[in-house]
Amino acid sequence: MFEVIVLAIALSMDAFAVSIGLGSKGNTKGLGLKAGLYFGAFQALMPFIGYLGGRGVLGWVDAYAHWIAFGLLALIGAKMIYEGLSEGIEESIATLTHKMMLLLAIATSIDAMAAGFSLTLLDINAWLACLIIGVTTFAFSWVGVLIGEKSGTWLENKAEIFGGVVLILIGVKMLVM
Q1: Number of domains observed in the structure of the chain
Q2: pTM of the model
Q3: What domain range is 154 assigned to?
């Protein structure tokens, strides 16, 4: 269960970073709840889709599953580190419509679908794991908007880099299990 909590925190860093950027724009009344619901729902749904896909192919790739999980987590982590070192997309967002929030939720959770494959290798309840990921992302997104409103974007990139490093470390741990 510890791995799921660490995975949930690492996966929520994308949404947390975007939420900080969104909060720094001001006009945050209700935005924390909106960001939490969108990002939390998609971060819970995408790993479950990845888990189901992983269950479907696990028999074919069972001998290499740990290497595949490591590769996916390392790639996702490296991408997060790269994005943390680059400019965020929040600077170009003028208005936060539901369509824009939907696109941001999908963009921040696509990586979670690949990470969901790693859930097939853990002896856990996938429903519970995805619920934990969703609730964690909800909380981080809500808090991210509040932090962004108060402090601006100075923490945004650091959160994404931290999440990337943690995902890579989870991948290494799965490799040496």
Answers
A1: 1
A2: 0.73
A3: 2-176
